[in-house]
Specification:
Helices cover 34% and strands 21% of the residues. It is α+β, with helices and mostly antiparallel strands and 336 residues long. Strands 4-3-2-6-5-1-11-12 form an 8-stranded mixed sheet. A 4-stranded antiparallel sheet has the order 7-8-9-10. The two termini are 29 Å apart.
């Protein structure tokens, strides 16, 4: 599939989707949100805007939807707080911005972009990042904005499991460890961009930060490749996964689908991790590898038709239909 002369947008809403735990009502809502995110981002591309505009617009839609572990739907830490991370990178200029551990920023992806465009830095954290947000007019909210009852109950069950008072269900395991939203885009001028936003993992402690806001690990873009990951963050950090995919594509001339599959479905599982990613090259080729039961994902290209899929055996329109390689069943599940 090639879209060298037309813009392309690819998104994900997290890996680890388990079919049996998805109600019909929630599945409908998730598909609608993914479609809206694709339409919102693609509208920017059709208007001739840069790839970073499309990435931002798509991710904002998902941050505002409580069905995803980012923004409004973020999971809770061990202490009962929501700590949000995000990153964005412009492959054309190699500029990047990221934030970690913010608790009052309504749309962390917009703050990450402000860091990229309006500060001399790449990464800001915690209270300092929120002070910068206030200076830049980025919307701040009361921390209660992020609370959802579903996420709160997930934390309560996790706390009981910490004490050995309850067994962890498959649903809670997926909810605890999987999440994150992301987007990669190719604009009409051939410029690439990538962005990722997350609430991290349920019951995380000690100010833990995963791969999503770390440039090169969960988010990376250059002139020939853009990647956003979703998986067990510690392994994406250790393999510098997003950068590794792009180096294989741009320096080793490995085809995008193969490069992404080698890192996501071979290198990371071999170390004991799992998850997925979305990737896009400057020719418009799309890759969406994952090694879990499913991954919220979608893309939109030359015909302007959103393609959305959730499960591993579901046709996502890329011509890559096949069940994902099984993750190592002896390894803990993925975490952002």
């Amino acid at each position: 599939m090639s879209h060298a002369t037309a813009p392309v947008l690819v998104i994900h809403g997290g890996a680890g989707v388990i079919r049996r735990d998805m109600s019909a009502e929630r599945e409908k809502a998730v598909r609608a949100a993914l479609k809206l995110a694709l339409q919102s981002g693609y509208a920017q591309l059709k208007a001739g805007k840069a790839a970073v505009e499309a990435v931002s617009a798509a991710i904002v839609v998902l941050e505002d939807d409580p069905n995803f572990n980012a923004g409004k739907g973020a999971v809770f830490t061990h202490e009962g707080k929501n700590e949000l991370d995000a990153a964005i990178m412009d492959g054309y200029t190699l500029r990047a911005g990221s934030v970690a551990g913010v608790q009052r920023v309504k749309n962390p992806i917009l703050l990450a972009r402000a860091v990229m465009e309006k500060s001399p830095h790449v990464m800001l954290i915690g209270e300092g990042a929120e002070a910068f947000a206030k200076e830049q007019g980025v919307t701040l909210v009361d921390p209660s904005y992020f609370r959802t009852e579903q996420r709160w109950q997930q934390l309560q069950r996790a706390l009981k499991q910490d004490k050995g008072a309850a067994a962890e269900s498959a649903e809670d395991k997926a909810a605890k460890h999987f999440g994150t939203v992301g987007a990669v885009a190719l604009d009409a001028q051939g410029r690439l961009a990538a962005g990722t936003s997350t609430g991290g993992m349920t019951d995380k402690r000690w100010g833990r930060v995963g791969d999503s806001p770390v440039i090169g690990a969960g988010t990376y873009a250059n002139s020939g490749c853009a990647v956003s990951g979703t998986g067990w963050g510690e392994f994406y950090l250790r393999t510098v996964a997003a950068h590794e995919v792009c180096m294989r594509v741009t320096q080793m001339r490995v085809p995008l689908q193969r490069a992404a599959a080698e890192v996501i479905n071979q290198e990371i599982p071999a170390m004991g991790g799992n998850g997925g990613a979305i990737a896009l090259d400057d020719k418009g080729h799309v890759a969406m590898p994952f090694n879990t039961d499913g991954m919220y994902r979608g893309w939109i290209g030359a015909d302007g038709v959103p393609h959305v899929a959730l499960y591993g055996d579901e046709d996502d329109g890329t011509g890559q239909l096949s069940p994902p390689a099984p993750a190592d069943s002896s390894a803990p599940p993925a975490a952002e």
